[in-house]
Amino acid sequence: MSIVLEKLTKRYDDHPVVNNVSLEIKDGEFFVLLGSSGSGKTTVLSMIAGLTAADQGRVLLHGRDVTWLPPQQRNVGFVFQNYALFQYMTVAQNVEFGLELRKVQGLQRRQKRDEQLELVGLAGLGNRMPSQLSGGQQQRVALARALAYEPDVLLLDEPLGALDAKIRVDLRRSLKLIQRKLGVATIFVTHDQEEAFDLADRIGVMSFGRLLETGTPEELYQHPQTEFVASFLGSANLLLGRLEQDQVRLGNLAFPAESSHEHLSRDDRVQILFRPEDVALAHQASELGCPQLEQAEVEEVSFAGAVEKLRLRLPPIPGVRPLAPLAAFGAESFVVDATRTPEQAMHHPLRLGDRTWVGIHRIHTLAHPGLSFLIVTDGGLRSRAAVSLGGQIGRLAHARVTLLGCENFSDRSDPHLEEARKELGSGLAEVEVLVSREPAAQAVAWAVERRPYDMVILGFGYPQDLELAEMCMAIGEHHLLLVPRPQPAPVHALICVTSGEPGKDDILFAGRLVRHLSAEASLLSVIPAETKDPERHQRVERFLESGVRSLSLLGVPAVPNIRVGEPAEEIRAEISQQPYDLVVLGAPLTGRDESVSLNGVVRQTLEGLYERSVLIVRSHDFHRQLQAGKNGNLS
User: Fold this and answer.
1) Rg (Cα) of the chain, in Å, rounded?
2) How far is Cα 60 from Cα 211, in angstroms, rounded to an integer?
3) Which helix (H) or strand (E) holds 180?
4) What is the pLDDT of residues 168-177, one digit of tens each?
5) How far apart are CA 230 and CA 213, in angstroms?
């Protein structure tokens, strides 16, 4: 293997921007590391090159451990997005620079320089200055300089990102030919999916520091294993259906289950992927020639050269939940993306507002991960309440549960921990037991670095456990369920929201959890008494009505409620009048130092909730934007 990464990890301010990445790249392979901004891909490249020190793990190049060697001893060629050429040097001097540092003699150095300039299509331009070249030509110079000293591996960090579309395509072709001719193992970092598909022998998809999947472009596009990869690579229609015996069911549609489904338990929820090109459209259902989904209304039509793109709106289907494209907040229907050839469009022309029957030619089924909980216990009374309620909710949601023993436990054989494990009971999708001798907050940080969770469940007493709750909210992206006493699974949830994007997150995650409990929900928004905006009440009313419709699509019955006054007081007043057994609050946004303060409405509300469990929901979109900004260009 040319490149081997073993459990590579890098942290900034105790936050892992690269998390336990392991990867093997063969001799001569063109490997593309694909991910959005902030995913950690550039940091991986920097650690391979020695520009950034790894906190954990190893880097091996052609069997040589270079983890702690300086960059100049690794024999790595690196091409940056911004060219990084010396503007006061000619093209020839730029290409020769690395050779001079390695004490290569003059004649041999000039021969190498000329070979590389010819290889990248710049022969005869050695006397020009970088400022006299186009962007594409400058990037070719940077590539020639990286290849001149015959590196063992070649690393390219979004080298085409600053170029216009046509130059990018031309340089892509050249780059592929050069890499094939030299046979050097290459890692190319990009966020451009088309670029990845065009160049890669294999692709690795990263998200928030984790390497999620690797495979050929065809494998990852046609047969992804995770929801993120399915929706990140190209356009994806992803619906939640069921696997029943030997069939995959999507509403009334049934597809034969493939042999690859043998690892899934029968009568289980599955994610059903079909690409836009797998969608069939016809005037009549009988003309589809494949299983029919439903009749749809054309919402968008766009011309994209070789294909026509359509977005189709379908009515809700019982038992089917859309995952991608995401249903608009407040929508009672969902959308499907389709593409057609010009011939198909000519045979069945469609305009905005037209109706058409929709069928599906081919599907790919993914295991549905469901919800994942981390239940924290130190053996105390409140921890036992968290274990009891967490187990009840976990069984109803068929969730994956990790029981984390901390502080007072030495190992997994501790009888109190075994008792907690038995308290969880059976009926869970998966149970894992972890032990840390660290205090609860540090133990949670360790656990969520190993694996992300949807929700952390804590025993809670106010005010002594407030600081612990704040520290747990500052770790990872999970939500937090605070359990003050033993109680049955909730049947009536009060979801307290403010209108806006964070409020949408509160409603959607709360709905995802509450639907498994067969519980009812009340949506509450409080308008401050001093508000002078006469239209505020109408806006909040419209937002809550949209929230009720979104919960309805999840199968959760809900009613809206507006109160006027001081938020914490009105929330407590509402709780005193109704038998709510779960209260949902939105978490304050994290600061730039990743700290979380529950002061304000959350703290004031918690002061009066000694008997009820409280779910604190964080807004993922805002957290991710903040984290991406904090990491800067650590993509």
Assistant:
1) 28
2) 18
3) helix 165-182
4) 888 888 889 9
5) 10
